[in-house]
Structure formats: structure tokens, C-alpha cells
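During the reporting period, our protein records have gained a C-alpha cell line. A sample record is set out beneath this paragraph:
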Amino acid sequence: MAKAKVVWAESALDDVQRIGDYLSAEASVDVANDFVGRLFESTDRLEKFPLSGAQIEENPAFRHVVVVGYRVIYRVLESVEVIAVITPGQNPKKILAFSKK
């Protein structure tokens, strides 16, 4: 597969902002910045290896990578579309239901 463009859904960017704000308040700005940097680095590799994330058990059309316990949920179409960033306790079925086109 040729190099794929990674596109972030607005809701996924909102998730990152929310997590970053939480980490800033509960830990430190440095911790939040480190986490956000690691998160974007992990998705940068999807440009070259879009199928490298594991398929999601709840819906194999979607994949995920795990970054410090958070699941970055995406699907591969013409580009890599990042749908959400969720904590281990969140139910991906609810998120995937809103992501169907």
C-alpha cells in the first residue's frame, strides 16, 4: 500500500484535548505534552504502515493502536481516519456506531 494520509476526526482531536487538559491539571503540563507527543508519533507510523494496528474485536473494519493505555481507534479507507482516542474503560461499540458511513 502506498503512503497513506492520516486524517483526524474532529471528535478524536477533542478527545486528545480533553485528555491533555486532564493530564495538565492532575499531573503537569510536561506530562500532558509528553503524552500528546507520543500519541501523535504513534499515529505518524500509520502513514507507512496503515494496517499495523490490531483489528478491533467489536468490529474488524476498525483497527487500534495503544498508547500509554489509551486506544487510538481508526479505519483505513483512502486515508487513515482516526475516529477516537478512548480509555480502557470506555465501550468502543458506542463510538463505532457513530462512525459508520
